Amino acid sequence: MDVDRLDMMTTPAALVDLDRVDANLRRVAAYTRQHGLRWRPHTKTHKTPELARLQLAAGAQGVTVATVREAEVMATVCDDVLLAYPPVGEDRLTRLMALPPQVRLTVALDSGEALGMLDRAARMAGRTVGVLVELDLGMRRVGVQSPEDAIALAGNVAFGSGLEYRGITFYAGHLRLPQEKLGSAMREQSERLATFIEALTDSGLRPGTVSGGSTPTLWRSHDVTGLTEIRPGINIFNDRNAVSVGACAWDECAYSVLATVVSTTVPGQAVIDAGSKALAKEEGFTDTGVYGALLGKPEVLVRGLSEEHGLLDLSNTSWRPYVGERVRVVPNHACASVNLHDTLHLLRQGAWAGQYAITARGW
Amino acid sequence: MDVDRLDMMTTPAALVDLDRVDANLRRVAAYTRQHGLRWRPHTKTHKTPELARLQLAAGAQGVTVATVREAEVMATVCDDVLLAYPPVGEDRLTRLMALPPQVRLTVALDSGEALGMLDRAARMAGRTVGVLVELDLGMRRVGVQSPEDAIALAGNVAFGSGLEYRGITFYAGHLRLPQEKLGSAMREQSERLATFIEALTDSGLRPGTVSGGSTPTLWRSHDVTGLTEIRPGINIFNDRNAVSVGACAWDECAYSVLATVVSTTVPGQAVIDAGSKALAKEEGFTDTGVYGALLGKPEVLVRGLSEEHGLLDLSNTSWRPYVGERVRVVPNHACASVNLHDTLHLLRQGAWAGQYAITARGW
Questions:
Q1: Is residue A362 in a domain?
Q2: Is residue B362 part of a domain?
Q3: Which pLDDT score is estimated for A3?
Q4: Where does the signal sequence lie (chains A, B) (predicted)?
Q5: Which of A262, A264, A309, A325 to mutate to test the interface with B (most CBs of B within 10 A)?
């Protein structure tokens, strides 16, 4: 291990505390075991096959991906891949069908068009592809709107000769509430989900898999009746947004961006070299105009971002950094920040302990 | 040229209309000639040496960069490089000093600490580095706050044996006004700048270079008395923000992101596969919650962004896209979007005509 390396490396740089990663994975593994849920982490957060391998070793039963590129990379370490994204377009389908034959592939979709294209591609490739019908349970992004639409689509899947109907999926990305307020929202979601499950079951289309789950709702997943599988992504790293809704504590944040203070001329402020190009310009769940906080000094907020500048607000601290001082920032949204870097630098007991290339970026 | 390639390529993809680029460069070249201004475009917008070469061929006298990586890449096509960023940190300085010896290097800085480090590095490398003292004219990001601070810093530069005092620089990124309201803001800025120029001149530190300029203020640069050089970046491509303040017209937008419609289940909305990972989540200058508009259909706005989803608001159009349809989005902020892609696909007369690798990303 190389303590000084953190002082010498080019900033901004993405850091991952592997001790915290281990603890985060143990915690979610224990939770899913306790509640009889399957765990299929979303790998878009880290985009790194070595970290998917850690999740599988900790008890994950498969992985979730958002892009074909992520599927291609994660297929090198896992034989059970869910593409939680409509597989629309020739290029997507061609590359999906070219995944290694031993990969059990499941795809989420919400339209007859996507279904038709996938069925044709699967038949031409001589491949069986599982399908989950995507439901909209209130996020209003993708997903069928009614139990009737779900039945129609699931029925068509069951008739598609290259396809296998495996169940339903949803994403409650709109539930960004403090843990104490989450209970009633989760029960409401559970009731809405039940209408879909009942209608499908009554039509002979009982969903074998009911897949949901996000990091903010992670620890209340057992409130959703009928859920069989969860797909938290951010949980491996956590971030300021996860802290803000109580889904983790500050000392469970495993991801940070190492930065250097480059200017202190404006009173009450220090400028670091981690801007939107390193942290990602993502609003907070519970505030606006704040993009991150210092690791170990959460009262120091990143209040403004240009591409190469992060503005630290010093109004709540007596700390006055010097030009050249190094700091670590926990961004609001870890996934979006990771996507901006080529490399994850790994820490063990606080010291540099290696690096992983972030190989599943792009599309 | 290959018309069909646009229909087949993986989406999202970054497109550059080279005919529009040519016209944009001709327009700014004519403006700077007319007003006797030097033109040093900021290459952070495109991060692509081939496009810097086009700018130089059109009449640019040098380039501006924000990172050492950009300096390294642009030094392969240009011998006059301004690093408009404080060169703080060992790694930055070591790599800067390793730029090819024929590169005339100038650096902007605002602190004695940055100055001391740079002087030491320059002397050790046996290199002369030019310095521009960075002023804060109201943006409150970086820059010395008063004429007295500017004199103190410029005086120290003049005494640094590895350095050469070349003048002053500022960035008015806070002036994001419609062209018709820009006049008085520019005059105010001009007056504030004059106090710095006068004080420096009275102290025997007359700035040879006075460098400013952004795309929103580009066409009023001649209102700023004493300005010798402008550094617009976005102007080569333009974007929705540049349109929103009247710095360009829609048909001067040369950059767009090709995307595929992947879902239309939510009424009044269509989902495309260009999300924050392709467009960048940057608020508009003149509105919030909007992240881009369709090329050729500016009434269709991108109203929500997840990492892989862009939500098109169909409330102002009778157009109803089908799943699989391809569209082109002009993002709010071109630079931030370009930084998310590996490749710029080039168009001539609307058809695919080649591609450039975006090689100056990262740090």
A1: no
A2: no
A3: 53
A4: none
A5: A262
